[in-house]
Amino acid sequence: MKKRLVTSALPYVNNIPHLGNLIQVLSADVFARFCRQYGYETLYVCGTDEYGTATETRALQEGVTPRELCDHYHKIHTDIYEWFGIEFDEWGRTSTPQQTEIVQHIFNKCDEAGFVREQEIEQLFCASCDRFLADRYVHGECPHCGYGDARGDQCEDCGKLLDPTELVKPRCGTCGATPELKSTKHLYIDLPKALPKLQGWMSQASVDGFWAKNAVKMTESWIRDGLKERCITRDLKWGIPVPKEGYEGKVFYVWFDAPIGYISITMCHTDRWEDWWRDPDNTELFQFIGKDNIPFHTVIFPSSLLASGEKWTMLHHMSSSEYLNYEDTKFSKSKGIGVFGNDCKDTGIPADVWRFYIYYNRPETSDFKFTWKDFQEKVNSELIGNLGNLVNRTLTFLKRFYDGKLPVGKRDETFWEEVARREKAVTEKLDRAELRDGLKEILALSGYGNKCFQDGEPWRTKTEDPQAAADLLYNLAYLVRDLAILIRPYLPATSDAVAGFMNWSDFSWDRLGDLTGLGEFTKPQLLFKQLEEDQIEELKVKYSGSQAERQEAEKGEPALEEQFASEIDIRAAKITSVSQHPDAEKLYVITLDCGEEEDRTICSGLVGHYTPEELNGKTILLVANLKPAKLRGIKSNGMLLAAETKDEKTMEVLFVQAEPGTRALVDGFGDASVPEKKIKIDRFFELPLTVDGHTVKSGAASLTLDGKSITAEKVETGSVG
RNA sequence: GGUGGCGUAGCUCAGUCGGUAGAGCAAACGGCUCAUAUCCGUUCGGUCAGGGGUUCAAAUCCCUUCGCCACUACCA
């Protein structure tokens, strides 16, 4: 029997995990508990992933050191997992000396084996801080939308991904000085070179380790699309120093070091860590992650290990779950939507009940939707009505009619044949980490117990045929004992409680079906409390929507028309020239006279719909206060309005007769005040214009120009954009 | 627009190598009273998103349309 090394994805330290994030840790916990009970030599490690830009930035904002920030959050994580009853062999973190040691070691080996390449790039350097600036420490004007305080990795305003060198007036995020472009070296791991090794390993391992289907598919598509060299160094302080000459002041990129955290956390657990990580012949590595993490565990981490040229315990089984969704939306850490680890505790609903629901509906092969209603139904019917009830009715019966002693009875061969068959199914499922199906098998077994209880009618036979009743209860008592063993990986506290009623304490898997050892029972307590309608309703309301949405709802939103009128500035503009965009097939570059001092330039995707001649000289409607956006290199300073039918077959530019600069107003809401704020395109589409009976409308009000409604000729009903 | 994924009973989901569809819940009815209004049984429920193709045989493989999701783009 091989040893089993179990890991669950290292949660990033920076935030509180929600129910969806918790699935991995909970899954690995059941599996590890099962393996221990079954008799495998087992080690389950996990911990917080702590290095990287996100924590460094956050710490800076909060005025603490990264270490202090991590300590703070590490504690929060620790408390949550403890509450859920996770039985780690080692719960650690990546910011340890062991991590530094092993990451540097693996890097050196990869380097020696020729899998690390140097590349010189131009990067912004701040002279006053005397360091190269990480992408998000450079601030400046966004080249796409003109937002003044965009970060070098991504503009917070328009959402575009940026290269820091694109920023218009770059400045150092820390000291404000203007950084200069300076060439610097970075290290890349040569994944293409490792590809043949990876491919050979993967095709075998994915079969031997019966990887989840999504993991196989995603890995294959990565391999098929070809791997790129990946930069593994960063200019940060909060990370592991790169042990190479010329790389002083640089650290490893988080994704390179994070998976190695599994190893370093094991090193913190035992000096004999190599028995686990360098013993592939006798160790099987089971990893539990979410599907968003697949490539790191099936491509990048294995490639690093292979590239090192050393002997490592590689991934055996990949258990990559799908997503858990929340009511009619998704769990979101950034938006604060869903139920979070600490919320579960606050509900007063015990951890085992949460564990039950998560496992029962574990998104093993497709996404699953968490709803409070379903939570209530499943808990009440399956956990309580089925399992809880069998335990309770059996034990109270024994207490009431047999004075709490195991009656003298006879082993029912047919019964135990059936039970053994089902128990075998449970074991097989658990052994392959099919956790959801394993739990369902257990509940089916409990259901079988209920059926036997019902069919045997011991409440009647106890007087008519006392021996039949005694036999039945004798067998059922041992079934309940078996259930306490089987359910233990999933619901440890419940298992303890049931075993306690039976004065039982041996949970090893090979006791299953062994009809010895029971004698006295104590009076059973109820295992669970039903989830009541009003309680669930209350929780549903309490944890619905994001906080922002709740505030919005309280205030009451102004009418659509009013929002449109106050925020959006639409003006007539005359087209003065039209030309094909030099670098874009579908775009025209159009200049417009808007009644302003200077003409405006916009880009518009009308190629194929209109020829330049059809457009030139016409007057159109322009959304004049849009934030400028760069489309394929040319700045577009507004958007012209076109109507479109729902089927998108007919598209029509809205031509009008008016002096350039004339404002279009929302009928009944239009005052003359000009919206000052520039708006984002997304905001514009949140306040949609429609065409109804050829008339352009915002909500129920029509859009007017010089007092007359604006109409579309060809489009009768549709949208404007 | 491109790429990938998904679409199965009222709801939430299974469905392996192609062999004319399953579970739980919900609903309806019946039974039992040991048990937390619990348990047992019966019934109802599906053109497997639509269309086409391959095949003796398609939820499954191929093409196509529609709808949803993710990433991505010259999205205006």
Notable characteristics:
721 residues, alpha+beta, 13-stranded antiparallel β-sheet, 5-stranded parallel β-sheet, RNA-binding
Outline the secondary-structure elements:
Elements: E1 3-8, H1 19-38, E2 42-48, H2 53-62, H3 66-83, E3 90-93, H4 97-112, E4 116-126, E5 131-132, E6 138-140, E7 150-151, E8 171-172, E9 180-189, H5 191-208, H6 213-225, E10 230-231, E11 233-234, E12 251-252, H7 254-257, H8 261-269, H9 274-277, E13 283-290, H10 294-307, E14 315-321, E15 324-326, E16 329-330, H11 341-346, H12 351-360, E17 368-370, H13 372-402, H14 413-431, H15 435-456, H16 458-464, H17 466-486, H18 492-502, H19 533-542, H20 547-555, H21 560-567, E18 570-580, E19 588-593, E20 600-604, H22 612-615, E21 619-623, E22 629-631, E23 634-636, E24 639-640, E25 642-645, E26 651-653, E27 663-666, H23 681-686, E28 689-692, E29 695-698, E30 701-705, E31 708-709, E32 718-720
Parallel strand pairs: 1-2, 1-13, 2-3, 13-14, 15-17
Antiparallel strand pairs: 4-5, 4-9, 6-7, 6-8, 9-10, 11-12, 15-16, 18-19, 18-21, 18-27, 19-20, 21-24, 22-23, 25-26, 25-32, 27-30, 28-29, 28-32, 29-30, 30-31
The protein binds one RNA strand of 76 nucleotides through helix 6, helix 13, helix 15, helix 16 and strand 20.
